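Entry 14. Structure prediction run on the chain below.
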Amino acid sequence: MGMASSQAYIIDPTVLLLYFIGNEDAKMIVESIMDEHAYGYILEPMLAELFQKMVEHFGYTVASSRLEAIKNSNIRLINIDFELIRDAGRIKTSNPSMPMVYAYMIALAKKFNATIVTTDTRLKVSNINIKYINLE
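Output returned:
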Protein backbone atom coordinates (compact mmCIF):
# COMPACT_ATOMS: atom_id res chain seq x y z
CA MET A 1 0.00 0.00 0.00
CA GLY A 2 1.19 3.48 -0.73
CA MET A 3 0.48 5.26 2.52
CA ALA A 4 1.24 8.96 2.31
CA SER A 5 1.42 9.16 6.09
CA SER A 6 1.79 6.70 8.90
CA GLN A 7 -1.32 7.86 10.77
CA ALA A 8 -3.26 4.92 12.18
CA TYR A 9 -6.71 4.83 13.77
CA ILE A 10 -8.54 2.37 16.00
CA ILE A 11 -12.17 2.84 15.00
CA ASP A 12 -15.06 2.69 17.46
CA PRO A 13 -18.14 1.09 15.77
CA THR A 14 -20.27 4.18 16.46
CA VAL A 15 -17.86 6.22 14.33
CA LEU A 16 -18.55 3.96 11.34
CA LEU A 17 -22.29 4.26 11.94
CA LEU A 18 -21.92 8.05 11.98
CA TYR A 19 -19.92 7.82 8.73
CA PHE A 20 -22.80 5.99 7.05
CA ILE A 21 -25.26 8.56 8.40
CA GLY A 22 -23.16 11.39 6.94
CA ASN A 23 -21.31 12.88 9.94
CA GLU A 24 -18.55 15.12 8.51
CA ASP A 25 -15.93 14.41 11.21
CA ALA A 26 -16.41 10.65 10.87
CA LYS A 27 -16.32 11.02 7.08
CA MET A 28 -12.90 12.76 7.20
CA ILE A 29 -11.37 9.92 9.24
CA VAL A 30 -12.96 7.03 7.33
CA GLU A 31 -12.23 8.54 3.91
CA SER A 32 -8.57 9.07 4.87
CA ILE A 33 -8.45 5.30 5.48
CA MET A 34 -10.37 4.45 2.29
CA ASP A 35 -8.06 6.73 0.27
CA GLU A 36 -5.02 5.02 1.85
CA HIS A 37 -3.79 8.19 3.59
CA ALA A 38 -4.12 6.43 6.95
CA TYR A 39 -4.44 2.96 8.41
CA GLY A 40 -7.67 1.90 10.09
CA TYR A 41 -8.29 -0.99 12.47
CA ILE A 42 -11.40 -2.39 14.11
CA LEU A 43 -11.82 -5.43 16.32
CA GLU A 44 -13.90 -8.14 14.64
CA PRO A 45 -16.26 -8.54 17.63
CA MET A 46 -17.03 -4.81 17.42
CA LEU A 47 -18.43 -5.39 13.94
CA ALA A 48 -21.29 -7.36 15.50
CA GLU A 49 -22.17 -4.30 17.57
CA LEU A 50 -21.93 -2.09 14.48
CA PHE A 51 -24.08 -4.50 12.45
CA GLN A 52 -26.77 -4.52 15.15
CA LYS A 53 -26.80 -0.68 15.20
CA MET A 54 -26.95 -0.54 11.39
CA VAL A 55 -29.86 -3.03 11.25
CA GLU A 56 -31.76 -0.81 13.71
CA HIS A 57 -30.98 2.31 11.70
CA PHE A 58 -31.06 1.14 8.05
CA GLY A 59 -32.74 -2.28 8.04
CA TYR A 60 -31.17 -5.70 7.46
CA THR A 61 -30.52 -5.48 3.70
CA VAL A 62 -28.71 -2.13 3.78
CA ALA A 63 -26.85 -3.11 6.97
CA SER A 64 -25.66 -6.34 5.32
CA SER A 65 -24.33 -4.54 2.25
CA ARG A 66 -22.54 -1.95 4.39
CA LEU A 67 -21.01 -4.67 6.55
CA GLU A 68 -19.75 -6.35 3.38
CA ALA A 69 -18.32 -3.00 2.21
CA ILE A 70 -16.41 -2.66 5.48
CA LYS A 71 -15.08 -6.20 5.13
CA ASN A 72 -13.80 -5.39 1.64
CA SER A 73 -12.42 -1.95 2.56
CA ASN A 74 -9.00 -0.80 3.74
CA ILE A 75 -10.20 -1.01 7.34
CA ARG A 76 -8.31 -3.95 8.78
CA LEU A 77 -10.33 -6.39 10.85
CA ILE A 78 -8.40 -7.51 13.92
CA ASN A 79 -9.32 -10.72 15.69
CA ILE A 80 -8.65 -11.23 19.35
CA ASP A 81 -5.57 -13.35 19.96
CA PHE A 82 -3.81 -14.35 23.19
CA GLU A 83 -1.39 -11.41 23.05
CA LEU A 84 -4.29 -8.98 22.80
CA ILE A 85 -6.16 -10.78 25.59
CA ARG A 86 -3.12 -10.47 27.86
CA ASP A 87 -2.54 -6.79 27.01
CA ALA A 88 -6.22 -5.85 27.41
CA GLY A 89 -6.43 -7.79 30.67
CA ARG A 90 -3.44 -5.92 32.07
CA ILE A 91 -4.97 -2.58 31.05
CA LYS A 92 -8.34 -3.51 32.59
CA THR A 93 -6.60 -4.55 35.83
CA SER A 94 -5.12 -1.05 36.11
CA ASN A 95 -8.51 0.53 35.27
CA PRO A 96 -11.16 -1.70 36.92
CA SER A 97 -14.12 0.56 36.10
CA MET A 98 -13.22 0.76 32.40
CA PRO A 99 -15.37 -1.31 30.00
CA MET A 100 -13.40 -4.28 28.65
CA VAL A 101 -13.93 -3.12 25.06
CA TYR A 102 -11.99 0.06 25.85
CA ALA A 103 -9.14 -2.01 27.25
CA TYR A 104 -9.00 -3.86 23.92
CA MET A 105 -9.05 -0.60 21.96
CA ILE A 106 -6.23 0.81 24.11
CA ALA A 107 -4.20 -2.38 23.68
CA LEU A 108 -4.64 -2.10 19.89
CA ALA A 109 -3.73 1.60 19.94
CA LYS A 110 -0.50 0.74 21.75
CA LYS A 111 0.26 -2.15 19.38
CA PHE A 112 -0.22 -0.06 16.22
CA ASN A 113 0.85 3.32 17.67
CA ALA A 114 -2.61 4.52 16.68
CA THR A 115 -5.16 7.15 17.67
CA ILE A 116 -8.46 5.88 19.02
CA VAL A 117 -11.44 7.47 17.26
CA THR A 118 -14.57 7.36 19.39
CA THR A 119 -17.71 9.24 20.31
CA ASP A 120 -17.38 8.40 24.00
CA THR A 121 -15.77 11.28 25.87
CA ARG A 122 -15.59 9.10 29.01
CA LEU A 123 -12.69 7.22 27.41
CA LYS A 124 -9.61 8.98 28.69
CA VAL A 125 -6.09 7.53 28.79
CA SER A 126 -3.00 9.59 29.45
CA ASN A 127 -0.58 7.84 27.10
CA ILE A 128 -2.87 7.27 24.08
CA ASN A 129 -4.09 9.79 21.49
CA ILE A 130 -7.86 9.95 21.31
CA LYS A 131 -9.95 11.84 18.74
CA TYR A 132 -13.55 12.45 19.78
CA ILE A 133 -16.26 12.63 17.14
CA ASN A 134 -19.41 14.59 17.99
CA LEU A 135 -22.70 12.69 17.72
CA GLU A 136 -24.18 15.19 15.26
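The domain at 8-132 is CATH 3.40.50.1010 (Rossmann fold).
Filed with the rest of this week's runs.
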